[in-house]
Specification:
CATH topology: Rossmann fold
Number of helices: 5
CATH class: Alpha Beta
CATH architecture: 3-Layer(aba) Sandwich
CATH superfamily: Response regulator
Number of strands: 5
Strand content: 15-25%
Length: about 120
């Protein structure tokens, strides 16, 4: 049975590339370009994994993660952040604070994306 993944990022090329790689690996993948849309999608069909950009229009990825982890119906979703930051200490601190499962640093290679998905699922 395929595992369900939501990619939440406002960079269309990254979403297209990531979706293609994950679908090719056998995952069911949908995407959203903002946190509010992603949250609606998660509430109607709870995914196994969310790849979540830290910087989104409107609500940040960190804020969305906080909502996910505090919602009884969503808290078991594996959350992996996408981040282009060079401040690795900051993102590692946020991962612990928000009970997320990790991050993939942009730009990334296909195997890094797939390894992160396999680690969670």
């Amino acid at each position: 049975m395929p595992r369900n993944i939501i990619i939440v990022d406002d960079e269309p090329d990254l979403v297209k590339f990531s979706s293609y790689r994950l679908k090719y690996a056998g995952y069911d993948v949908v995407s959203a370009s903002d946190a509010e849309t992603a949250l609606e999608m998660m509430r109607s069909n709870v995914p196994d994994l969310v790849f979540l950009d830290v910087h989104l229009p409107g609500m940040s990825g960190y804020d969305l993660c906080k909502i996910i982890k505090n919602d009884e119906a969503l808290k078991k979703i594996c959350v992996i952040f996408f981040s282009a930051t060079s401040q690795l200490d900051e993102i590692e601190q946020k991962i612990k604070e928000l009970n997320a499962q990790g991050y993939v640093r942009k730009p990334f290679e296909p195997h890094e994306l797939l390894d992160a998905a396999k680690k969670c699922l």
